[in-house]
Amino acid sequence: MLVSYKYHLIGSFFLTALFFSGVTNAEKSAEQLYKRLCIACHGPELTGSFGSSLVDDEWKHGATDADIAKVIKEGVIKKGMPPMGRSLSDEQITAMVVFIREKGKAASREK
Ligand code: HEC
Q1: Would you state the pLDDT for residue 43?
Q2: Which residue of 1, 28, 81, 95 has the lowest C-beta tally within 10 Å?
Q3: Exposure of 85 by Cβ count < 10 A (0-12 exposed, 13-18 middle, 19+ buried)?
């Protein structure tokens, strides 16, 4: 009884933490996910290295949020862009698109 209560407490603590980190820090967590999953190919400033630049406002696979989300989810396997749909939820992909847009806006302001 005591044990299951303890697990329940721990479980709800994690759920609450997950919930808040998801809702209030969507963009921050997108940045962390970017660092974990994308930086190797798209570079620390998103300007590209092995992968293409994500901040030059040129979109090979379409410029809408939905197009970009689709590339992230399904990848462009032949060109070396891995599909991320298994590592990222749809919400995380949406947050990633927002993160890329913000970085793109910042890059075009610097020009
Ligand atoms: C193994 C290397 C690699 C990783 C890791 C990677 N990408 Fe890519 N990505 C590529 C390559 C290469 C392309 C260019 C595909 C092409 O030329 O059609 C690309 C293309 C893209 C495009 C389309 C750009 C356009 O012009 O339409 C987006 C958006 C994108 N990546 C986002 C991401 C995100 C977000 C992540 C992390 C979740 C990520 N990529 C991880 C290699 C990678």
Answers
A1: 98
A2: 1
A3: middle
